[in-house]
Specification:
The protein has 325 residues and is an alpha/beta fold. 41% of the residues lie in helices and 18% in strands. The chain has 2 domains: 2-166 and 205-228, 3-Layer(aba) Sandwich (Rossmann fold); 169-203 and 231-265 and 283-323, Alpha-Beta Complex (UDP-galactose 4-epimerase, domain 1). The structure holds nicotinamide-adenine-dinucleotide.
């Protein structure tokens, strides 16, 4: 299948391109920047909001995996106008061009943050009604979901919406919590946790996630929504311990901060398991190990961006709350 991956040069998108190649598909990337990982994959460089670029990128394409977005909430907060242009308007431009081009399936990358931050004891599944978003980023992602499904209703464009858990693993942004702790630990510095560290999130190892994205191309996934999440929530304390176990014995220190009351929702991955046959395979400790190996390899390359530039202070760890939406 010829598959266009928007945002294919990014963290998750680059892994999706790997998994498409593994599955025998024929990927094409649409991104603002050339992929550091796939110089050998056909790439259209340009802006999602540019109709002509998008039309060119869609030529001969069977399915679109739409991952391009302003996905770093620090960037979102700095530039909501750009975020609106890319995440909302850009999605509409792509949908319209996909409809005109007769694309068979449009897959939209969303986030479990659409469920909000309510710590519900009940499992949140894809039929859980969505409340009003608190963050502008989430607002644009919900808008993208709505645009996608309503294009399906209006124009019979087959769609799939995927709500990703919090991805971690090789190629991750250095400001996220696993990279921040890893950078600190590699520098032999203490891992600082704000509060008691029981606040937790539903992580998913990025290569597993990318397999789930490719799995969603099956006919059964037409006009369906899926959560693609790890098996269980992981606390900040557990992350620090996992990093310390891999990197070496650095102290874990608690500083004053928010109480550990944010548990994140209990998000169900059952539908993806039943209908797509997709389940995350990588245990958190193994995923952290693979991330640390990747960082170490990258650090040995002269030009590579490494996590060593990361500000892994407690403030950064607090900020991860927002930078991993
Ligand atoms: N990283 C997370 O924590 C997370 C969690 C849930 C969902 N998501 C969603 O997954 C998708 C991918 O996220 P990511 O973490 O890989 O982000 P990323 O920033 O690593 O990748 C996004 C890619 O989109 C490209 N892009 C941005 N604006 C563009 C434009 N106008 N035209 C063309 N390309 C453009 C960027 O150059 C980048 O390569 C996003 O839709 C995001 O909302 C991310």
């Amino acid at each position: 299948m010829k598959v266009l991956v928007t945002g294919g040069a990014g963290f998750i998108g680059s892994h999706v391109v790997d998994k498409l190649l593994d599955a025998g598909h024929d990927p094409r990337i649409l991104d603002l920047i050339p992929s550091p990982y796939h110089s050998d994959v056909e790439t259209v460089l340009g802006d999602l909001g540019d109709r002509e670029i998008v039309q060119r990128a869609l030529e001969g394409v069977d399915a679109v995996l739409h991952l391009a977005a302003v996905a770093d909430v620090d960037q979102v907060a700095k530039n909501p106008t750009l975020t609106d242009q890319v995440n909302t308007r850009g999605t509409q431009v792509l949908l319209e061009a996909a409809r005109e081009a007769g694309v068979k399936r449009f897959v939209y990358a969303s986030t479990i943050w659409v469920y909000g931050d309510a710590a519900s004891p009940e499992a949140l599944d894809e039929d859980t009604p969505l409340g009003l978003p608190k963050h502008f980023y989430t607002a644009t992602k919900i808008a993208g979901e709505m645009y996608t499904s309503s294009y399906g209703e209006l124009y019979d464009l087959e769609w799939t919406i995927l709500r990703f858990g919090i991805p971690y693993g090789p190629r991750a942004r250095p400001t996220a919590v696993v990279p921040a702790f890893t950078a600190k630990a590699l520098a032999g510095q203490p891992l600082m946790i704000a509060g008691d560290g029981t606040q937790s999130r539903r992580f998913v190892y990025v290569e597993d996630l990318a397999e789930g994205v490719v799995a969603s191309l099956v006919p059964e996934a037409a006009n369906r929504v899926y959560n693609l999440v790890g098996r269980e929530n992981t606390s900040v304390r557990a992350i620090a311990r996992a990093v310390r176990d891999v990197v070496g014995d650095v102290p874990i220190e608690h500083i004053e901060g928010r109480a550990g009351d944010l548990r994140g929702g209990n998000i169900s991955g059952e539908r993806a398991a039943t209908e797509l046959g997709w389940e995350p395979r990588t245990a958190f400790a193994d995923g952290v190990r693979r991330y640390v190996e990747w960082v170490t390899e990258e650090a040995s390359r002269p030009s590579a961006a490494t996590a060593s530039s990361t500000d892994g202070t407690a403030a950064a760890v607090l900020r991860q709350e927002s930078s991993e939406l």
